[in-house]
Specification:
alpha/beta, Urease, subunit C, domain 1, TIM Barrel, eight-stranded mixed β-sheet, 13 helices, 16 strands, disordered N terminus, signal, Amidohydrolase family protein, Metallo-dep_Hydrolase, Amidohydro-rel
Length: 446
């Protein structure tokens, strides 16, 4: 391929993340509005200054750009949870993956927000699936992205500080709008594996991990009470670096949630017990056997991030996995958020398909929409700020050709922070480039 063609392709791709243009007042009229908490059969949504300013049955304000959504569905932008968006380009190419950390001197303090790439080719692809926000999490041996091993992640080194590390690092929230400013909020949660993966990094047994975890929190609290003594080397040696100790203080005092990757019902019970004993705030991730202990999860007021199509007994941790897991958890009163597939990066857009499958297995339609919108915002402390069509929320709105949980439905307009986004991506640009033989580079014409 000629250098000129390579440069042109790169420029075209990078132009998809150009800075957003000045915002305007936009009125979306006549559509069936899914607010995230209710339905308006034929209403009007008004966007101004990056926010939703009104929603209801009123007319468009004077001077607004009017978009006729009659016969279409207007929904909040979806939120990808447990995602790698903007943190990795090709998971198997180490240099493009900023979600993995293997330094044993830095685990809990690892902050993915510093490695985010607003020009990532994955963002426009996910955006075309209706995703406008994402919770980006560091990878660890139990990550849903697969192909992650203990030696590739935090705490895998020898000597020095605690080896191995129990924590993968800290998650961040991003928006998927064009431009370089995609970070919404860093350090929204800590991440740690439990179950088989957690046992592996702690020496091989589940009991070892729980004891080590409790001892770690004890050291964090000791450090928090005696920082001055630590500074003058008047405190006993601690197993964590100072950066990790500082990062874990809000976890230990219950102000920063801990995303716990766990699958087996008995492991879920033990994690709930640990949270009670230590007074920490947790979010369950995975929980394929959660339906077996749904009442206990609900009683503990613990939310769950799940993939509702995880139903194969691929190992002893998910022997009881079933397609009705989401419905059972929701019926018990658990707040759920539905994930995409394989780390919610290249297949993040499939979250809506997963939600549709959950509906076909008993999850109420309204609960499925909430699991893609208002619930993720609520789980991560951003309720009312995005994930719903309501006055004051971010102007993240998608106009769909039909039901957004139907695979054949496609977006006809996407707004992020009130700014309309292009309906294109690198895969579509490549499709269009090579659709006609005459557009192919000379070497491909023979």
């Amino acid at each position: 391929m000629r250098l000129s063609h390579m440069i042109a392709g790169a420029v075209a791709a990078l132009s998809m993340a150009a800075p957003a243009v000045a915002q305007e007042t936009v009125a979306i009229v006549g559509g069936r509005i899914l607010t995230g908490t209710s339905v308006i059969e034929s209403g009007t949504v008004v966007l101004r200054d990056g926010k939703i300013v009104s929603v209801g049955s009123g007319a468009a304000p004077a001077g607004a750009r009017v978009i006729n959504a009659a016969g279409k569905t207007v929904a909040p932008g979806f939120v990808a949870v447990d995602s790698g968006l903007a943190g990795t380009e090709v998971g198997s190419v180490r240099g493009t993956n900023d979600l993995r950390n293997s330094a044993n001197t830095l685990s809990a303090a690892f902050d993915v927000s510093y490695g985010l790439d607003p020009w990532s080719f994955t963002l426009p692809v996910a955006r075309l699936g209706g995703i406008t926000r994402a919770v980006v999490v560091p990878q660890h041996p139990g990550s849903s992205g697969g192909h992650v091993h203990e030696e590739d992640t935090a705490g895998a080194g020898d000597g020095g500080f605690q080896t191995p590390g129990l924590f993968a690092g800290q998650a961040a929230i991003i928006n998927l709008g064009q431009g370089s400013n995609i970070l919404v909020k860093p350090r929204v949660a800590m991440v740690a594996p439990f179950g088989e993966a957690g046992a592996a990094v702690a020496g091989g047994a589940r009991g070892a991990q729980f004891v080590l975890f409790k001892e770690t929190l004890s050291e964090v609290r000791l450090y928090a009470r005696n920082k001055s003594a630590y500074e003058r080397a008047g405190l006993r040696n601690l197993s964590l670096s100072r950066a990790d100790l500082e990062a874990l203080i809000p976890v230990a005092n219950g102000t920063l949630p801990l995303i716990v990757t766990v699958h087996r019902a008995s492991d879920i019970q033990q994690v709930l017990r640990l949270a009670r004993e230590e007074g920490i705030k947790i979010i369950l991730d995975g929980a394929e056997e959660g339906w077996l202990v749904a009442g206990e999860i609900a009683a503990a007021n613990v939310p769950v991030l799940l993939n509702p199509i995880s139903n194969l007994p691929s190992d002893f941790e998910v022997r009881a996995a079933r397609m009705e897991n989401a419905a059972a958890l929701n019926a018990a009163g658990v707040v759920i958020a539905i994930k995409g597939n394989e780390g919610s990066t290249h297949r993040a857009r499939e979250a809506r398909y997963n939600a549709g499958n959950a509906v076909s297995h008993g999850l109420p339609y309204s609960a499925a929409i909430a699991a893609l919108t208002v619930n993720p915002a609520r789980i991560f402390g951003m309720a009312g700020q995005f994930g719903q069509i309501a006055p004051g929320a971010a102007g993240d709105v998608v106009i769909w050709s039909g039901d957004p949980l139907e695979p054949l439905s496609q977006p006809s307009a996407i707004f992020v922070n009130g700014v309309e986004q292009p309906l294109t991506s690198r895969p579509l640009l490549l499709r269009d480039r090579y659709l006609q033989p005459t557009t192919m580079p000379p070497a491909y014409r023979n």
